[in-house]
Design a protein that fits this description.
This protein is of the alpha/beta class and 260 residues long. It contains eleven helices and eleven strands. Helices cover 43% and strands 20% of the residues.
Length: 260
């Protein structure tokens, strides 16, 4: 049976690691990027290339888009924000906290059902599918369903498919999508809903089904410079994200590149 206390410890530990890392990263880097946790594998690769090619230093703080947006609202010194959902970028734009002329829809993604292990049997995801029965007494790992984009998309999909009410009591919520992925990879939860790109990055899970695109809002990752940044390196990095090397890294992790 799923161990809830351990889940809470894991999710909190991941969140705490990000929080503790942030002040040092802000001091050490020439530019500071706030990015959705689902971007970590691809963006780490891109940042390594950028640092080597330019001699500058870009440092990334990863978390759920909602948490990052709230940090920016509270004055955190970010130069660039990349969200996994349009609404959080809209919120910062309404608050005057980004430079709207720099805003670009960078990437697309999809959400999938993942299972623990490398060879799990596929599942037909369709209206009324018995996800609750598949779980039994176990839990479904998801990012926070009312604030973190991956969780919001997942809840929307399950609702549109008519299975949310049955599944809701079995959901184990994590602070961000990578924390939800970790719950499945470690076997804490047998199933989880994450981005397709997260599944590519984790060999300890299998994709057993992809949610129909029409079952949830379109998944778009907007990027923009923050209103407070005056660093030309930040603008240069945003341009770099649309270059061939960055696009290859994103596509290698399963993202759909929207800005070409």
């Amino acid at each position: 049976m799923f161990a809830m206390p351990r889940r809470l410890v894991l999710a909190s530990a991941l969140s705490l690691t990000t929080a503790l890392a942030f002040p040092a990263a802000a001091r050490a880097g020439d530019i500071t990027i706030f990015a959705a946790a689902s971007m970590k594998t691809a963006l780490d690769e891109i940042v390594t290339s950028w640092n080597a090619e330019t001699g500058n230093t870009a440092v990334v703080s990863y978390a759920g888009s909602s948490a990052l947006a709230r940090q920016i609202q509270n004055g955190a010194p970010a130069d660039l924000f990349i969200s996994a959902a349009v609404n959080w970028m809209d919120t910062l734009q309404k608050d005057g906290l980004i430079k709207p002329e720099t805003r670009v829809d960078l990437l697309g993604n999809s959400i999938v059902l993942v299972a623990h292990g490398a060879n799990a049997a596929p599942v037909e995801i369709a209206p009324g599918f018995d996800l609750a029965g598949m779980l039994g007494e176990n839990r479904l790992a998801m990012a926070l369903v009312d604030s973190v984009p991956a969780g919001v998309y997942g809840k929307a999909a399950l609702t549109s498919l008519g299975v949310w009410d049955a599944v809701e009591p079995k959901v184990a919520q994590a602070d961000n999508v990578r924390a939800a992925l970790a719950l499945v990879a470690t076997g804490e939860a047998p199933l989880g809903i994450v981005y397709a790109t997260d599944a590519v990055a984790e060999p300890g899970v299998s994709v057993v089904g992809t949610f129909p695109a029409g079952s949830h809002p379109a998944i778009i990752y907007p990027a923009a410079l923050t209103a407070e940044t005056g660093k030309p390196e930040a603008e240069a990095f945003l341009i770099y994200l649309s270059g061939a090397k960055a696009q290859a890294a994103f596509e290698g992790q399963g993202f759909q590149v929207l800005k070409k």
